[in-house]
Write a structure and sequence with these properties.
- The chain has about 280 residues and is an alpha/beta fold.
- It contains 13 helices and eight strands.
- It has helices at about 15-25, 40-50, 55-60, 70-75, 85-95, 100-105, 130-140, 170-175, 195-205, 210-215, 215-235, 255-270, 275-280; strands at about 1-5, 35, 110-115, 120-125, 150, 155-160, 175-180, 235-240.
- A hairpin with a 4-residue loop joins β3 and β4.
- The longest helix is centred in the last third of the chain and has 18 residues, at about 215-235.
- The model has no long low-confidence stretch (mean pLDDT about 95).
């Protein structure tokens, strides 16, 4: 039975996930495969390359760099996360990603994006760390209205969390029957209908499917919460989640908040480590 790891997105709430992953790396926990959405993919790749602490390190180092992330970046480039700098300079020039370790690790690494023409999720297996593969990662994490759509391999794509925010069911269908799911919201969280769907629709009027999927995103998300709860009750899924709201914005690069959220993820995972190991090895 293949063991999997499923990582929700959530922008800088993903620092919680980074803390969980750092604790797992420290304890030597391994999986047969991993699937990440948006920030889950951006930070999850470091588990496959075995680079403990990297996600927190480069986010703190670059928090004041206008090329990296924020409204100044959006006004200058059209992307709230600078596409060229963040995806193609940082991992090769500034905080180097260990491509050889990534390739040599047999764990499969999947990410999720949204095809904004069809409104369907796209699941991509990332086997290398090249310019093209990093464009897939950018597609998975490109938030609607504040990111330019990514045109790649005949598709036009944005953030995978629009249509499959917690892709447990998809991973099960790929053969991963025993999974650890890392959430970035507390277990009692339920998503409400987005109030600014109309504004996102106006800002992405060239792609009318974006407004459609965003209008029903809360229904998709809450259905997935119900599903993972059912699977946890059946014993084939272990949930890891924050005890309370993380209180950090999606693009809020506050060093104090990032360190706090990362530490919470690390501490929760450390506290669950025996349970995680027994679940993963049973």
């Amino acid at each position: 039975m293949k063991k999997g790891l499923v990582l929700e997105g959530g922008g800088l709430r993903g620092m919680f996930t980074a803390g969980v992953l750092d604790a797992m790396m420290e304890a030597g926990v391994t999986f047969d495969g991993m699937i990440g959405v948006s920030a889950g993919a951006l930070f999850g790749c470091n588990l496959k390359s075995r680079q403990q602490g990297r996600a927190l390190r480069y986010n703190i180092a670059l928090r004041k760099d206008p090329r990296y992330m924020g409204w100044r970046t959006l006004m200058k480039t059209g992307d709230i996360v600078g596409a060229q700098f963040s995806y193609h300079e940082v991992p090769f020039l500034i905080d180097k990603f260990d491509r050889e370790a990534f390739i040599s690790n047999p764990m499969e690494f999947w990410l999720v994006a949204t095809d904004i023409i069809t409104g369907e999720p796209v699941y991509h297996r990332m086997d290398d760390f090249t310019h093209r593969e990093l464009e897939w990662m950018r597609a998975s994490a490109s938030m609607p209205a504040v990111s330019r759509p990514v045109k790649l391999d005949g598709r036009i794509m944005l953030d995978g969390g629009m249509v499959d925010a917690i892709p447990l069911k998809a991973f099960q269908q790929m053969g991963y029957k025993r999974n650890v799911v890392v959430l970035t919201q507390p277990r009692d969280y339920y998503k409400k209908r987005m109030k600014l769907t109309w504004l996102i629709g106006r800002m992405t009027r060239q792609y009318p499917m974006v407004r459609e999927v965003m209008a029903r995103r809360h229904l998709m998300y809450n259905d997935e919460l119900h599903y993972i709860t059912e699977q946890a009750a059946l014993g084939n899924t272990l949930l890891i989640y924050p005890n309370k709201p993380l209180r950090i914005g999606r693009t809020e690069l506050s060093e104090k908040k990032m360190r706090r959220v990362h530490q919470e993820g690390y501490d929760i995972a450390r506290g669950m480590m025996q349970q995680i190991k027994e679940f993963a090895n049973s």
